[in-house]
Structure formats: C-alpha cells, structure tokens
## 1
Amino acid sequence: MKRNVISIVLGGGRGTRLFPLTYSRSKPAVPIAGKYRLVDIPISNCLNSGLNKILVLTQFNSASLNSHIKNSYHFDIFSKGFVDILAAEQNVENESWYQGTADAVRQSMKHLEKYDYDYILILSGDQLYQMDFREMLDFHIENGGDVTIATIPVVAKDATGFGILKSDDDGNITSFYEKPEYEILEGLKSEVSEENKHKGKEYLASMGIYIFTKSILKKMFEDGAGDDFGKDIIPNSIGKYTTLSYQFEGYWTDIGTIESFYEANIDLCQDFPQFNLFSSSPIYTRARMLPPSKINGSYVSKAVFGDGCIIMADKIENSVIGNRTRIDKGSTIVNSYVMGADFYQNTTEIVLNDRKGRPNMGIGKYCYIEKAILDKNCYIGDNVRIIGGKHLQDGDFGTHSIQDGIVVVKKDAVILPGTHIG
C-alpha cells in the first residue's frame, strides 16, 4: 500500500509542569532512560516504521534540542531520508510565534511544498511508547479516513484527565470531550476489545497522534479551523470529515509532569518494564564515543546504566544512572534518576577540589539519595542526604525543587557537603 508520508514532530512549548527540567531545554530535549532524549522516541518510531522524512518543529528553549537533532540523525548521500529542524520564525506575512500545535503546522506548510507526500503524520515530542505507524496508516487509507486519531483505552478514573473520543462500531468518531466530568462518563463508552472491557478500559483517550490526508488538512487551514489540534481542529472535524479512531493496545504514557516522568524512568528498572528498551525496534540517539561503565565494589539491584560511568557506590537500587555519572565510595542511591554529565571533569580540578573540600561533579562520598531526580552536571558534596517523600512540601528552593514528593536537583547545581534535603 502506498504510504507517501511526511512526519512532523511537535517540539513542545514551555513545559512548565516539568520545571525545573525544562528551565534551559524544551520538553522533547529532556534526557530519559540514562542515554536518550524524549524526542528520540517519536523519531525512532518513525524510522522503525519505514518513515524517514521527518521534520521537528521547535520554538521555545530550542538550542539543546536543535543540537541533539543535528548531532544524532544522519543519512547517507544516496538516501532521500532526513530529520530536519523547522524553527519558529517571524516573516513579512506573520510576525507572531506559534499560537498552538495546529498553528505551528500551519505556519510550516509553506516549507513542505518541496516534498512529495499524500499524508501528514503529526506526533508529540514528549511521549513514551513503541508503535508501528504503518498499521495506523493502512487503517487510515483502507477506511477512507480524512483524519485518524490514535486512541488508547483508559479506565474511568483516568478518563477525566484526557480528551475522550466516542466512536461507533466502525471506528468513526461521533463526539469529543476535553477532560469530561465524571458524571457524564457513562455515556462516553466506546467499543473496545474484550480484554480491555474486562479491565474497565472502555473510554478512548486521544494520544495526540494524528494522520491527516494532505488535501483535507490544507482545506482545514484555509477555512480557519483553529490554532490547536486537541482544542480546535479535532472537535471541528467530527461530523464534517471522516474522522476515525485507531485503537492502540500497547504501552503509552504522556510525560507531562515530574511525577509521570519519574515513574516512567523508574519503571525501566523492573524485571519486565512496560516500555521495552531491549526489543527488536531500537531507540536511536546520538552516537557517543564513550568508554564502558566501570563499577567497583557496589551492590547493584534493578538498575539501568548509561555509558562512561565510574561507580564506587556502596549500593544502587531501583535507579537509572545516566552517561558519565561519577558516584564516590560509601554512597547509596535508591529509587532515583541520576542524569549524569555532559562532559568529564578535569582530573587536576578533581584533585584540587578534594584538597579544598569542594564538591566535584557527580555524587561525593557517603551520600544517601532516595526518590530524587538529579539533572545533568550536578556537584553533590560528601555526606549529603537527599530524601524525597510525600511529607515534603512542593516548592522551589534555589538549588532544587520539590514536586509530588520528588526532589529535583537542578542542572549545574552545587550541593555543599553535609547538606540535608528532606
């Protein structure tokens, strides 16, 4: 079946709910699983689906994301594939920045004219899932879709936090409700598999993944359908265009908050994680020429390590340890995500800091860290205790912030020896 597709990955807005991880980077540029960035997920799904014409739309805090895309995705000179960046721009026709997800695509349509495509695949840059988009495209084409929305069955308690789509037995979407009240949910059930029905997953939530037939999307933009896909374009397409629901049965999570980000990473440490990093569909990222990780005298259980780490910790349990992480002797890391570092500290500087009692990059001696996220390039002194938990009050405290009981140490933060947090 002909699949002449161009894929567009939305680079994300301010990402305020992921602060402080998004203080100096966009959401899709946030490191995940110790060695990847969130944007690697949709791009890898595209490449594993045989779709190699990919544009990433960027606007806010885009320097880190742009650098990652430039250094990660290269195709040989005989390939027609590409992963290119389309940065927001002001011009003589439009002096405003992107006003929403649909407006970002609308303003970029003029740059797509040089490409040959029949369908547009719209993806979010901050979700965790593995999906073969070819199956969704075939569904769209076979059923004569103008718009197809990937949906995932959810239970009633989760439905109030999503855009809920009601579909008929043929998969046609008949109505849409953005974060509906619990009282009206009973009338929003859709036809799902017997397994999902048994689990109480009878409500179809939008995954923010869309396929548009090219001519239909252009017509929607010409008719002024709105600035946002979820709030404007999708609700306005129902009843006017053939709008279909494509039910996805696999694992999917939206990395929208510190809590969801933390849980998604910690889950990777389990024996059978919901997101499988070890499948036949690889996650692509920047190829770093780093040495293997070195672990000396540590008790390690249910941990994921990136490359180039130097570990002398006493204990690491149920934690993700990112590239170039250094953890000194006697320290314990439990239920935490340590993102690592962007570079190795100079050996002379390390010796000098040790003499003067200053923290080095990484985690010092005899520290205890539990239920925390340490952003990149942190300097954690000796005998530091960081213990998250629901007993902690949310807030921003200079070197760190606390959300939902999770302590987030900021990028480049210096935590002095003997400091206690939690």
## 2
Amino acid sequence: MPDSYIIEVDSQTAGIVVRSSGGYRFFASSDRFNRLEGQLFRNAREAERAARRLVNGDVKEAA
C-alpha cells in the first residue's frame, strides 16, 4: 500500500493523507479543508468522504 494519497473533491485538491501509526493523517491544501487538518483516518477513502461531506455542507459529520 502507498504511504500517501492525494485527496480530490470535484476536481479540486483537498489535501493529502500520509500513513502514520494508526491510520492516515490529513494535510489540507487549501483553507476550504482546514477543518480536516491533522485528523487521523483509517484509510484514504474515509478521508475523501470527510472532504466530500465538508464541501457538501455536512460539517457536523466531516470532523
């Protein structure tokens, strides 16, 4: 498995996730995704879903 992934939402780069102990840590690439900065996710797909929820306005579930 790769150690990092680029997360995109609607053709916009949300950030990257980097493998660390316990999962994948999110690093935002723009202010729009700062709410996810530093969060740990089980996998890259989970991080992508959180970024999508954030864009769609479902802030309560994004974090």
## 3
Amino acid sequence: MRAPSGAVAGLCSASATMFAVGMAFLGYWGLYEPGGWRSADLVIVVLALVGFAALGSVPWIVTTPVADDGEEKVAAARRALALEVVLIWLSVLVSVLT
C-alpha cells in the first residue's frame, strides 16, 4: 500500500518542529546553569536525548529506499515520531513536577 501524498514531507516537517520544541525546552529549562545536577536533572536530559535520537531516525526511516512493490516505511516512521513526542513531553513533565 502506498503512503498518502505528502506523508514523507509531513513526517519530516513534524520531526523538525518537535526538534525546535525540544531545543527551546532545553534552552529554557537551563541546561547551562551553574551548580550540581540532581538525579531528576539526569532523567530529564536522558529522556530528551533519547527523544532526539528517535527524532533523528524519523527522516532516515521514512526516506529509506524500498522496492517498487515493497512496503513503505511510513508506519515505522510514525511510530518513531510518536516515541519522540512522548519522550520530549515526558521530559518536560518531569521538569515541571520536580
């Protein structure tokens, strides 16, 4: 089954938008503030970095060449995007709650 027209561009745009949201969060959160880090700070950074890794995989997954009749990678890219969104927002939630 072929992906809908614009699915690849939409997924790439959504991943770029979430990258901007994640970077704005890390900049606002105070990644560069002086002082020691608490364990909650490490959890926030790890969640965000794993989310950014999933984010980087979205364009790579969705633009991987497939055979003419082969299954497209749009579903896998959607799952990676969903994982990235959940991890970035989870890091935001952890930072708000701590």
## 4
Amino acid sequence: MYDLATKDLDPPFAVVDLDAFDANGADLLRRAAGKPIRVVSKSVRCRYLLERVLARPGFEGLMCYSLAEAVWHVEQGTSEDIVVAYPTADHGALRRLAANDRAREAISIMVDSPEHLDLVDAALGQGHPEIRVCLELDASWRPLPGVHVGTRRSPVFSPRQAADLARTILSRKGFRLVGMMAYEGQIAGLGDAAGGGVKNSVIGWMQRKSIVEIAKRRAAAVRAVSALVDLEFVNGGGSGSVESTGAEAAVTEIAAGSGLIGPTLFDGYAHFSPRPAAMFALPVVRRPAPKVATLFSGGYIASGPAESSRLPTPYLPEGLSLLGFEGAGEVQTPVSGEAARHLRLGDRVWLRHAKAGELAERFTHYHVVIGDRVDRTVPTYRGESQNFG
C-alpha cells in the first residue's frame, strides 16, 4: 500500500498513515474515559497533525517542550492553551513571552524551585508582566532511601515541599500559580511487555506499587496547594499510563502524544497497542550478499540509553533485521533476512523510528497517506525552519 501511494517519490522520505493516526487518537480518548487529553507536541512536531488532533473533541491544549516553541504556536494560532513541560533558561523566549499579551494568557511555564522565578526576574527585570506558572511535583517512585525509579525531574517530592513552593510563588510579584504537573515516567514511559517473562513481571510489580503510591501522594499535594490557591489544572500521565492516571480524582487532564504515532518503543505495552502511524522509506543501493541489502542513510537513532531499543526497526517487507555489527549508519544501513533475496536496487524498505517525534527532526516534510494515495504533503517543524533544540 505505501509503495503504491508513494510510487512517484524518491526515498528517503517519511509518511504518516492518517487512518492509523486518527485511530490512535480515538483509542487514546477511549482509554481516557472522558478526561481531557493535553497533546504532547514533542511526540508529533508537525503543526498540521497537531492542529488536526486538537480539532477533535476530547483533546484540549498543547504540552510543549520549549518556551520558544510555545510562543511560536501561539503566534501561528495553533492553540491558546499551552503548558511548557520543562523549565526554561531562554531569556530571549521569556522576553517574547512578556511582550505578547496573547502568549502570556495562553502559556504556563514550568517551575520547581525559587531559582526559576529568579531567572525570569533576571531576564525580564523587576515589575515585569504577570507570568503564568505551573508547579512540578516529582512523580518518581522511591520505595527505599536512596532508591530512585523513574525520571529525574523536580526536587519537589512531598506535599509539604509542594505547599512551600506554592507559598513562595504566591509571595512573588509578577507570577500567577495556575497549575500542577507530575509525570510518572516509570509507568507512562516503560513498557511492561517488552522483555522476557521475569523482566516483565518485575516491571509490572513496580508499576502497580508506583501507581498506588503516586495516586496518594499526588492527591495530598494537590490538597495542600489547593488550600492556598485555586488551580486551573492538574496534569499527569503519558500515553502509557492514560488509564491509571485518568482514574485519579486529583488529576484534571492527561498528557499524551506518543500514542498518536505508535513508535517501536510503544510496541512493548500489554494494555494497549497503537498502530504504526509514521514510518520512513530508504532505497536499496547495494546487494553485497544474497540475503543482505544495503540501504542509503538510515542512522536515525532515538534519544535515551545507548542500546538496541533506540535503533530504527525494519518494518516492510517483513522478515528483515539490522546487522548487529553495523546497525543503522549515517550513510548506509544493511538489512538481512530471507526477504532481502527479492529486493532489487531502487526498491524501498520501510522502517519505524523508536520514538514518536524525533523522526520529524530528520525530515522537512511528512507525506500524509490515506489508503493508496498521498493526500497532502505537510511540513514538520524542520520544514517550517523551526528547531527548538
């Protein structure tokens, strides 16, 4: 199907299967059970796709990874409700935010310490316009002293620490505390069906324990902060934890994005299976052996720990795999398998990226496929000359 739809295109190029993208969106809404989903932009990085999913009831607002990105989306009219998921040290972006009335009403920046407030003051000067801020609670699991399971994010871990920071924010002129966020990466970002039986059992046990712990601690933190200020939103979760996070009464919205794309890292979850919605085609340029075909380019390695799970994965035709000695290379990527016998020079091999949004950093455009045709070609962030780091 993809070969037919793109027969007039020269690879390398990337496509998005719109039927799969839309079906994944519907599945996220089903799993959210009525709780609104804030779309995580870093998992998409294409304005056309972000605007498409935001037009669907049940998806409300963006979660951006960069303040400069958030300001750009407001300028483009993508969304008027944006949370920046990571603290910023970008003085230029802060000045753009302060100078734009619409952006200041739309964007909430992330803070987890008084030093973040100091940085904003240093960038904007005393007496700056009011900046909306979101307090981040660390959602990692710490079952024993010195044991840390999850992403290393905020130093604010306990309800008391959350209330203390909230008091500090409320005491500072030029800031308005509007929300709280907690990302439980050890649940949302870790598949429980990706390894062997013992590994899966351990991950499943850890996640069950962590779900119970964060639900209690997050609820207590929200109560402590809400006693000081009325919060507009409490954000939590990710594509891998939609059900458990959505079940928490303290959470008002769920963050999700990778579930729209269905990268290979999301093949390893027992409770949901997104359809592969984005993939890229590479041409066969060598036939060094009967069961080996060498592809042009392809070294699109995902961020995270340097291991095989971060490599792209041959998808179509079925039965191909990367060579362990070479992997995916800067200028060539050999694949092997019985299916390679039938590949000729110029044929396409389709691969999937390990992470959802990072493929968009490799291509300036996505060809949007519906059935056996390309419906349109749309720019990624790169195609719009945007690079947010």
